[in-house]
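seq:
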Amino acid sequence: MKKIGFIGYGLRSETMMKAFTGAGLPLAPAAVADPRLETLQPQLARDGRFADTRYYADAEEMLDREALDAVFIGTRCGLHARYAALVMEHGLPLFLEKPVCIDEAQYARLLAAPPA
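struct:
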């Protein structure tokens, strides 16, 4: 079973988790980093797939503390590049919804990140 972390768990992340499950992929949501933890954690607690999931308000803390196999980024578009670079710096594969970046500064940051 591969342990996946989510940075941002909104509609896109929920949709992708359903797709992963529907495809029979051996993935477990090991950790979720989202600033809306107070409302999100009780909702996810009702879903058995999240029984062993750990929650973080900060993505950097999650990446530093968890032994993940991959990360799904489902944040607002303006945050995609920042978190993608962070995940790549940790040497992890990532799933990233589009757009990958929204300006040249974000593009430059991604180019400077080590490949995961």
